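To: structure desk
From: M.T.
Subject: fold request, one chain
Message: Could you run this one when you get a chance? Sequence is below, nothing fancy, just the single chain.
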Amino acid sequence: MRDKRLQVLASNLAGYSIDVQPGDNVLIDMIGSERELAKLLIEEVAKRGGRPFVETSDRSVLRTLLKHATKEQIELWASFDLKRMENMQGYIAIRSGENANELSDVPGENMQLYEKLYRHPVHSEQRVKHTKWVVLRYPNASMAQLANMSTEAFEDFYFDVCNLDYAKMDKAMDPLAELMSKTDKVRIVSPGTDLTFSIQGIGAKKCSGHRNIPDGEVFSCPVRGSVQGTITYNTPSVYSGVTFENVSFTFENGKIVEATANDTAKLNEILDTDEGARYIGEFSLGFNPHILHPMKDILFDEKIAGSLHFTPGQAYEETDNGNRSAVHWDLVLIQRPEYGGGEVYFDDRLIRKDGIFVVPELEGLNPESLK
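Reply: Done. Structure tokens follow.
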């Protein structure tokens, strides 16, 4: 018997998230062993008059491929998949792999080739900019372990988060998006963090289930050369299969001039991918009421209630500061009291303290209002 929660999720993804229209070509990109959700998505896309296409892949196979790939091979691979993506109006990715660190031993130069020659043109430039897309994880024992939960408890948590009333959340985001659009100076203060930058003229974008599931953030972007000071992130993050902890950046005139972590050498190798990787491409406040603790999964961690992320690399077109990079790395700082607390100021006005919005117009984004 099919899990009714899966049916709801599939319907929400095809209907609410990417709004499949008759004649839309939709690529369902299935990473890992999950099959039931892929079947339900095929049915939901077809029910709406769309044309479903399916790609299935495995991270362990990708690992072996990347370890032996040549520059010419990756370029040819990218040309095939870019042509396919150019013919898609919609894209749904389900990531259900068992091992978050599967790519950790792929040589750094091979990962850089993959990011630059494949991921950047196919996904950052074509899929992100020219399709209706949504990306989600699928619950499994590995994710439950990362979240320090039993598998069954994690599945209940997952469906609470993913089947949240995102239409209600969308309306509650309006005042924050409006305030961000009018703000010039932002200051962030937390243990190990005192950071200032401008978002003047950049605008703001709501994220309420149309791009990621789970969701719950409003993002903008710093004026490229405006970032000054230091930020110390308190959330572990997996990038290219490597887990980074205690990441700290010091900025001068927008550029990361010092970067340290548990693996400082590997961190700086990523930041040296290209010139834009040492500049910031996104600033966002997260507030999903059901996500409280990190689980080394960016799709969840960047939505943690009372968090923010400050992202080295590529800027989004919707809030564009002109920064271009093969890197886009959402590193997370949680400011709730149990994580050290902290404040966010817009134009010298305190708008969030210890993870709770403290100005009347934003109180609708606090946990008790969104659950």
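Reply (cont.): The mean pLDDT is 94. Let me know if you need anything else for the meeting.
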